[in-house]
Design brief:
Layout: H1 9-36, H2 40-68, E1 69-74, E2 78-84, H3 98-107, E3 112-114, E4 120-122, E5 125-130, E6 136-141, H4 155-166, H5 175-178, E7 182-185, E8 190-194, H6 213-216, H7 221-224, E9 239-246, E10 252-259, E11 272-278, H8 281-289, E12 295-297, E13 311-317, E14 320-326, H9 337-346, H10 349-357, E15 361-363, H11 386-396, E16 400-401, E17 407-411, E18 414-417, E19 419-425, H12 428-444, E20 447-453, H13 455-463, E21 470-476, H14 484-487, H15 505-514, H16 520-537, E22 540-553, E23 580-585
Parallel strand pairs: 2-11, 2-12, 19-20, 19-21
Antiparallel strand pairs: 1-23, 3-4, 5-6, 6-8, 7-8, 9-10, 10-11, 12-22, 13-22, 14-21, 14-22, 15-22, 16-17, 17-18
Helix pairs in contact: 9-11, 10-12, 15-16
Length: 590
Amino acid sequence: MTTTDESPSWSKTPRRRLLNKQFHLKKEATFKAALETLSRSERIFVSVLVGLLLISVGGILYSVNQFLLVEVPAKGGSTSEGIVGSPRFINPLLALSDADRDLTALVYSGLLKATPEGKFIPDLAESYTISEDGLIYNFVLRDDAVFHDGEPVTTNDIVFTIGKAKDSLLKSPKRANWEGVGVEQVNEREINFVLQQPYAPFLENTTIGILPMHMWEHTNTEQFAFSTHNIEPIGSGPYKIQRIERSSVGIPELYEFTVFEDYAIGRPYIDRVTIRIYSNEDELIKNYLRGDVDSMSGVSPEKLTEVHNDSEIVRSPLPRIFAVFFNQSKAPVFTHLEVRKALDVALDKERIVNEVLGGYGTEIKSPIPPGVLRSSVQASFEKSSRIERAKEILERNGWAQGDEGIWKKTVKKSELTLSFSIATSNTPELKAAAAIIKDEWEKLGAQVTLRIFEPGDLNQNVIRPREYEALLFGEIVGRELDLFAFWHSSQRNDPGLNIALYANITADRLLEEARTLSEREERIKRYEQFEEEIKADIPAVFMYAPDFIYVTPKKVQGLELGSVTTSGERFLNIHEWYIETDKVWYFFEN
């Protein structure tokens, strides 16, 4: 029998292995023989060259690897924060205090979510559309949206939440946002909101946190505020409550939050967030300085005398304005434009920002917070000639200073004196600002009396019945600029917020048009024109917009404040904050 090359491959394998072994042994013997022909110094030289070659190749490979690597956020880490207050309503429908809103922001989420840049992105919603006439807003829920207890989020929860917000017996601060809005449930994943007239800022309403109906449906409206769900809430937000520590009398002193793995937008990076609650600002700062908490927010500027080296102060202009509002019906002296103009020119607003706010604020000349419009109305006079210019305005209009330096004018055979009172709240910031205002206007030659009220008394017995000659107060304008409630003539009486009792037909028209326009550029044009009307009429002396101050550890990265309306909005992008990092090649970054 003749042997051929077609014998099985297994019969060749041992032979190949033997041949390969013999080949390598032969090469090794040849290499050794070659080395033996070299002298000792030559062998050392070759060894050095080979070593350098290996080091060079290794260095090149390391440099290439480092060049390709980028640092990316990774899961893990924890942070702690101190707040002042006593949370009562960790509930998006009832939250009143900063402490309430802070914790609510961590626990709950809405159909949409505001971003630090002032935009709105889908949260519980998968998508939304707006009808051409701006009256119907259609939302489709994500099919994987769930609450912290694993129950799915459906449009039943949306209908329930908005229904409670509109319930007059509940007295929710969100009620005004939903009055006149129809709610149409298409199915468990789709819902329509129907407006009676176009309202451009409506999208912000849909950021309201959604309550789980299965937990609240058996709680009647009268018992809503007393439910334990307000202190031990379940929502669908980025963090869920892991542990609560209480004082000896049962008041929560610590909330420990753990990451919600199924958060609709995506799992947050930081695993644990601890909120410690203190009764006052001094206690908060003391515990921060001894390292009990990493962060603190809303601290008075004068308290920021010492901050850890591993912390930084982040600030953001608040969409709030503070001003002295004139009530011309109570103080006839303010019916004279030259008086309002002189008082505006004479006030040293920079002094208020520096002495009261420690520089953490911005001077303003209109009811629109800084940075909202393309440009803002600037001060008209130099600081050095402020008082002199104000006096010239009064003199040109028939006013004269009496023996005591107070300005007087004869009007229809009656003597009018530049004398009035300013009402304000018994809070450190406003009291300090009022003292400076009084001092500056008395330098001009006005007779000024301060009336200080407790906040509740001021609101109930002074502001609501409009019982003031001038009012030093602040207005929260909000992210979506809508000044209708603050300046439209229809809002002059309670519960309207037109505390200057301002009436101007042109301004009314501009405000009405602005709130119905969906095109941002057109809305801005209306507000710029409105701003000019206010500048001409001077219904108030606008002073400053304060900054939101946040002391945060440098270890926390990815934090963006952007536009902050309330303290709780510092958590707008908390799902993007991170402490731990990994390194990956840049083409794997996403």
